[in-house]
Structure formats: C-alpha cells, structure tokens
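Thread title: Can someone regenerate the structure for this chain?

I was given the following input by a collaborator and told the matching structure tokens would be attached. They weren't. Posting the sequence so someone can regenerate them.
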Amino acid sequence: MLELLKKVTLVGAFMCLTSTPVFAVDSDGDGIDDADDVCCQTPLGVPVNERGRPIADLDADCDVDLDDYAIFQLSFTGPTTPCCIPSCNGRQCGDDGCGGSCGTCAPSESCDACGQCVSECTPDCSGLVCGDDGCGGSCGTCGANEVCNPSGQCEPSCVPDCAGRDCGSDGCSGICGVCGSGESCNISIGVCEQDCTPDCTGMNCGDDGCGGSCGTCGGGETCDVNGQCQPSCVPDCAGKECGDDGCAGSCGTCGGSEVCTVSGQCEPA
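Best answer:
Regenerated them for you:
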C-alpha cells in the first residue's frame, strides 16, 4: 500500500467552476459521470470508487498526498481513523462526500453537479405556439409552409412579389425598392414618378402646374390665361355687322370697298 501511495500523482483540491449543470459527461475520464462524481478533476488513471473519489483519498479532500499516507499509517499504529471525512472544498452546496451537505442555495437557485449554486430559469410559453421559451428551449415548431412570427404564433409563409414594381410594398412587409432623388413612389402601382412642386406665384386661379388649383374666381368672374380673375363678358353683336362685340372679339368684317361704322354697320368707303 505504501508503494501504491508513493506512485499516485498528487491531486489538487477539487474545484469546479462551471455554472451550468452538465449531464452524462465524464470530465476527468474516471468512468463516473460528472453528475455523480464528487471529485470531477481526478487525474487520468487514478483508481476511484463508485462516487468518483480516489480510493487512496483517505481524508476525503479529492487528492492523494502525504496526509492520506499518515492516515494509512495510523490505521496500523494509532487510533482508528474515520472512514469518511466531509469535504466541501470549492463547493457551495450539495453532498459533502459523507452524506452531509455543503450548504443550500437560495430559492431562485439550484445546485449543479459540481456543487455550485446557479440561477434557475422557468420556461414560459404562455400564449405561444412556437419560438423561444425564455430559457433557450422551444415552445413548439410550425408546420410546413408556416413561419413563427415575433409574437410566437404560426402564420402562413409569405412570398415577396415585386413583379413590375420598382418601389412600395412587396406584399410581405418588405419593400420592392426606393425611388431616387426628385422622385416619389406611386404606391398603387409601385412606380417611381418625378416629383412635382405646385407653383401659384402671382396667380389667383387656374392650374398650379401639378394638376391642382391656385384658386377659384367669384361669381361673375372668369380666370384668364395668366391666372387672374376677370369680370365675366358676354359678347353682344345685336344689330351689328362688324366691329367689336364688347368682349374684345369681332362681330364681323366688311368687304374690300366698305368700312365699318361706329354703329357696327358696313358702308361704302
């Protein structure tokens, strides 16, 4: 036994820094899963018991050193040494290796396989049929031709359609493109059109140049070609053969050898 102890490599005090439970993993390759291993950093090749503790670790501190050798000697020369010495080196909670406890975690925490208190996460899928459950898991998956929206609901897949469209909606909450400077999108047909700036400078009525109006004239007025309201005029040629119709028009013209009198009659020249 003495020779065996001398050949066993000294093992550092057990310390496990992981903060998330690891299951079905044998970190130190001693044949004991980490979930059941009270000494999860045993050097390769060191014989262990069913709890992962080195067989020659008589003081239950997860290493084999001169202290263990001293206990071994006392088993022959001195008082009987307890078979199990509690060890909580680097552990906040869980088993102390002798059926006792290294401590308890807060209500919102749980003890992992390496004796560390870690925060618990409660999955929440209330009102959700798909997507994340808040703890890295899933609330479900959608069927064929469906996608999971940000609200955790399955909805029919959408195929964007921009055929013949340069701008505007693609039918799936996206866009078919943006118009250039000086252009705006006619969203009904998805076509970029030149911008138009209405111009009514010096005008009281008439077209603003963009299909709109600069204003309307009052009763008895009409809008002239310069965008100004003018009194309405009714041409009057009653009893007249020629001359002015009263509205800057003509009531007719006389023959080559005739002249138009002020009364609107044609007479020989």
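The beta strands are 109-111, 117-119, 146-148, 154-156, 183-186, 191-194, 221-223, 229-231, 258-260, 266-268.
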